[in-house]
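Students often ask what a 'structure token' actually looks like in practice. Rather than answer in the abstract, let us consider Metallo-beta-lactamase domain-containing protein, a protein of 343 residues. Its sequence is given first.
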Amino acid sequence: MAAAAQGSSLLCSCRSRPCTTRTTLSPFGPYPFLSPLTPIGASSKQLKLSNSRTGRVVSAVVSEENAIQSSFSGTDGFKLTYLEGNSWLWDVGGVKILVDPILVGNLDFGIPWLYDAAKKFLKNFQLSDIPEVDCLLITQSLDDHCHLKTLKPLSEKYPNLRVIATPNAKALLDPLFSNVTYLEPGQSSIIEAGNGSTVKVQATAGPVLGPPWQRPENGYLVIYPEGKSTLYYEPHCVYNTSSLEKERANIIITPVIKQLLPKFTLVSGQEDAVRLAKLLNAKFIVPMTNGDLDAKGLLASLVSAEGTIESFKELLSKELPDAQVLQPTPGVPLEIPLPPNLP
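Now compare that with the structural description of the same chain:
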């Protein structure tokens, strides 16, 4: 376990390309309604955005900044925008959360000769294109999650930004941000947006990146509103079963394709992802392609993948036949409304 987790500290890798359909789910039935989406290319300048009030799809040729700003006007449910790698921008009931951002330079862990990765699709997307957010969420202390090239300029722009993070990142974050809450597994904190919306974030145990006595990194349960709907996120598909047995999450973001180095598991998936979905009784699974990057270097050449999204769907259908797999397209919000039986 320790050896595998240590390998996972170097990179997360997945080779599957994202699909090119935008999925908007109906709150009144179990099946998604699919509408065409222009694939995101190298510049990611042309997007088809959905008006959150009318559901109307409109075409726009705009900068990434304007595209993201216009599509983040608020939602009654979860609006999840994948920014490649481990990076996300979430709007949860109007609370905007930036997750594990890598928005400045490449991912190289300080050893570019060994590993150097750039984004494939959002090549021109920059830190300045991100709208003002309510919270920065950090799952792990290593560079593919706690990316100092991004966090230093982010802290200069927003020195009082609310941050929720693993305690393992304390030495990196304390010099940058003044409003940091470090959560151990089982602890929680409330994020409040300017519009008065609140979201509860509860830490869960993630991978151990080092010796077995080291503190685990974090996964998170994102709960809105008042426990009625929950998203679970952990970017390595590593979890503590006993700590999650009493939890439920209708939305799960997780890798589903295993990524392997010789004798090391970098990222789990497949059967482990199915067990996770069954454990939390998930309705929607959003598979991460967190290694689908333009990578070079010795480590990148040694990584191999096991399984596919299609084989995961087949495994999942046997255990949770009513669950839906929703593949995100980088830069395009994936909207998941609240369950229709909420008061």
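One point worth highlighting: The chain has one domain: 78-332. Ask yourself how you might have guessed this from the sequence alone, and why that guess would often be unreliable.
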